[in-house]
Structures are given as structure tokens and as C-alpha cells.
Amino acid sequence: MSPISLSPGAVPLRDWHAIYRGAVPELADGCRERVAQGAEAVARILERGEPVYGINTGFGKLASVRIANEELTTLQRNIVLSHAAGIGDATPRAIVRLMLALKLASLAQGASGVRPETVDMIETMLTRNLLPVIPAQGSVGASGDLAPLAHMAAAMIGVGEIEDDGEVKPADEALKSAGLAPLELGPKEGLALLNGTQFSTAHALAGLFEAETGFRAALITGALSTEAAKGTDAPFDPRIHALRPHPGQIAVADTLRTLMAGSAIRASHRVDDPRVQDPYCLRCQPQVMGAAFDVLKNAAAMLAIEANGVSDNPLIFADSGEALSGGNFHAEPVAFAADMIAMAVCEIGSIAERRVAMLVDPALSNLPAFLTPRPGLNSGFMIPQVTAAALVSENKQLAHPASVDSIPTSANQEDHVSMAAHGARRLGRMTDNLHAVIGIELLAAAQGCDFHAPLASSAMLEAVRSVVRAAVPSLDEDRHFHPDMVRAVDLVRDGALEAAIGIALPTMD
């Protein structure tokens, strides 16, 4: 995979996605000059001798405590060590990589007052796959993701742990093995490293990317379920959606219509099916999935801005030599975006589970009970549907908005916080659940279509069925179901369904 050139402040969403998937970022030319100017501005501020938060004062409630110049290096080291107070499981590698890249792009805009060698250190760690071990719990999303980012900064100064190509080592040992010396922090650098929203933003972006994977797969499985139930494509007629022109609704209807074009199963519905209307889980896919798509796109737009912003404090303006204290570290935009993603993920899974429930019910689907040729002796898809229901209910509980919560911290100096980290971290669990629900629907829909032989679906959906059947044979009689589900979920997660249809599906970027 080719390196990704980062132009700080103008990185497209697709590049963050590539980094999440393993691409290595490199700073574009010209960034280090801006960084050097910011560091020089900090030096000039110190020469003036005026108290400036985080440069020569204490932090948080201790901002009124003045720090002598000879203790500034100790001040920055101390803030890293004292704030590295996270707990819980280690943050996933892909998210740590994205987190480092986000911090790299933020610092490289020159408004944080760090030196070029500090930026170089982050870039080198990414290039050499030296990833700090970062406990996942401990951030309330303001004053930035302090504890997680402090663990990142601690690894840079040789404290804590680093994962080096899969092996966890003491940070100083991992740096030495890579030929790197621990970073010695200059004025403001500790604060600049651990202040910001990069932990929350990395988790939210990861949730967005995984939600997009689930959304695209659900378009395909939704079309396949419609075929399995011998549903009609009349509700996808463009004239219907032109009268309620939400962009997502139109895009989803167009996609479903394209996926089903040329289906012999669909044609059979026109001949002898007495049903007048299909259940909502089939008929209202454009309205539900389209609304989810629009919500995801709105969240994507918010996160694209956040990923290209500077969110530490104070901010350094080299042209005027000022250090301005503000609140860009407050992750409220990320919290709202994460809540939006959670709601969309919940609804995509919810309507998919209803399609599975419809397919296993002979009264609704006109298929054998629980999609097995010999119901009674065999239970077929009875319990996979129960599993899908359990996952959907779990996602409903997880979808409660995190952004409406707040709790005062730092002796009430930081009296309103975003809870963005909570909102963003849960997205990994929710999207895992979504992928599993879609995997179950994939198996159920393919099984339902098996009963319509020799009638075939569209060329695209038959290609999807071929991919499924290459991994999971048709269920003629009960067998150990779990391995089948694991294979199906892998097909969803790996993008195999989209690859099979050979057309581009709606995208967030």
C-alpha cells in the first residue's frame, strides 16, 4: 500500500480511511516550516516573561501557579506522566495508528508550538509501526482526551509500552531497538501532545468506516431478502422518491432497483403473486436505509472537519506572537457525530433483523418454516434469528446518546464535558453487532432464494449467492451453525459482497 501524503487541514476522508486500513502517512512538503515558526513563537513568549497557560504555568485548576524557566522541561514531563492515568483494555492497533496520524496532522499546522523534531517522532513511529499501548478508558472528551493522549506521549518519551510489530515491549526498549532516542519535551510540548480530540475522533472515524461497510452490505442483503420473499420492486420506482427527494432515499431506491434488475424471481411476482403490498422491512428500505445514509453522511462531514482541525490549547499564532486560550479541545462535535452514527447503525441492523424474522415465518414469506426443507426434525434458521434479535436489542441499549451526559472534573474548572470518548468507543461493539446481523441475513436470504430454483435472481445477486455458496453450502439439514455465521460475517466485513456485484455503491466521502 502506497504512503498517504498528509496535507494538514485538507486531508480527505478517504485518506483517513486508508490509514485506518493500514496505509502509512507522510507529511506533505512545507509543513515543518510552519511547525518551526510556531516553536519560535513559544520561545519569544518565554523571553517576554509573561505568564501563559501551559507554557509557564500549572494546568487546569493549577493554572495560576507560575513555573520558573529552569523547571519548564520538568513541567512538561510531569504533565505527561501524571495524566497517563488510563485504565482498561488496550486500544485496537488500527485506531492507535489513526490517532497518531490525526495528532501528526494537527501539530503540523503550526498552531501548537511544538518543534519539528516532535512531529518527526510521531511520523517515524507510524512509519516503523511503533504503536503506543493506550488503555481505552479514562477520557471524558474535555479538556481533550487527556489520559489516552498522555499514554501516547509517554511512549514517545520512553515511558510505558509500545507494540512493535505485534510484540509489546517497554517503550524505552522499543525505541532503542528502532534506533530512536526518547523525546525530551520542550516548553508546551507535553500539553500540546495530550490535549486534543484525537482519541475520540479516531474511534468515531473507525465507527463511521465500519458503519459504511455494514450499510453497503445491508443494501445487498436487503435486495437478496426481497428476492427470497418474492417481493416487488415497485416501491423502488424513482417516481415515488422524486416526490420526497431526500438524497439518501433516492440513492438507496436506485441501488435496490439496479441490484434486482433482470431477476426471473422478480418477474414471477408479476404473474401470480396475490400480495398487494410487502411488509415495511422490504417496502420501506429506501426510507429507512436512505435516512440512515443521510445521517452517516452528516456525521462524516462533521468528522472530516474535526480530523482537519487543531484542538489543543492554548493555540499559538506565530504571525502575531500570541498564545490564545480557548476551548477547541471540547469534543462536543465528535460526541454528536458518534451519537448520529450509533443511531444509524442501530436502525440498519433493526430493519435487517426484521427481514430475517420475515423470511423464517412461513405466514409472511411463503417459504418453508425457518428456511429448512424438513421443519420439525430440523430447526433451520430459528436460533440465528434469535441471535440477530439479541444483537439488535444490544445495539438499541448502546445507542442511547452519550452527548447528553456530562460530569464536572478538575475541581469544577472543567465543569462541562462531552463524553465523546464514550460515544465513539461503543461504536466498535455496535458495528461488530451490525456486521453479524447482516451476515445472518446474508445466509437466510441466500437460503430463501435456494427454494425458488430453477428461477434465478439478477446477475448481480446471483454473483453474491455464488460467493456465499463458495463459503457456506445450502442448509439441507441441521448442522453446527456457528462456523457458517463466522464465514458469512467475514464476507460482510471484508467487502466481498460489494466486490461480487461489480458496481459502486453509495459512499460517505
What does this structure look like?
This protein has 509 residues and is mainly alpha-helical. The chain has two domains: 4-196, Fumarase C, Chain B, domain 1 (Orthogonal Bundle), CATH 1.10.275; 210-312 and 325-501, Fumarase C, Chain A, domain 2, CATH 1.20.200. Helices cover 56% and strands 6% of the residues. The protein has helices at residues 13-20, 31-48, 72-83, 93-107, 116-127, 146-156, 171-177, 189-194, 198-228, 238-242, 247-260, 264-272, 280-283, 285-307, 332-360, 362-365, 382-398, 420-450, 459-471, 482-493, 496-501; strands spanning 4-6, 25-27, 87-90, 130-132, 135-137, 161-164, 167-170, 315-317, 322-324. Strands 4-6-7 form a three-stranded antiparallel beta sheet. It has a two-stranded parallel ribbon with strand order 1-2. A two-stranded antiparallel ribbon has the order 3-5. 53% of the residues are buried. There is a cross-link at residues 142-144 (5-imidazolinone (Ala-Gly)). This is Histidine ammonia-lyase. Pathway: Amino-acid degradation; L-histidine degradation into L-glutamate; N-formimidoyl-L-glutamate from L-histidine: step 1/3.
CATH class (first level) name of the largest domain: Mainly Alpha
Strand content: 5-15%
User: What's the CATH topology label of the largest domain?
Assistant: Fumarase C, Chain A, domain 2
Q: Give the radius of gyration.
A: 26 Å
What would you call the structural class? mainly alpha
DSSP helix fraction: 55-70%
Number of domains: 2
EC number: 4.3.1.3
Subcellular location: Cytoplasm
Pathway: Amino-acid degradation; L-histidine degradation into L-glutamate; N-formimidoyl-L-glutamate from L-histidine: step 1/3
Cross-link (5-imidazolinone (Ala-Gly)): 142-144
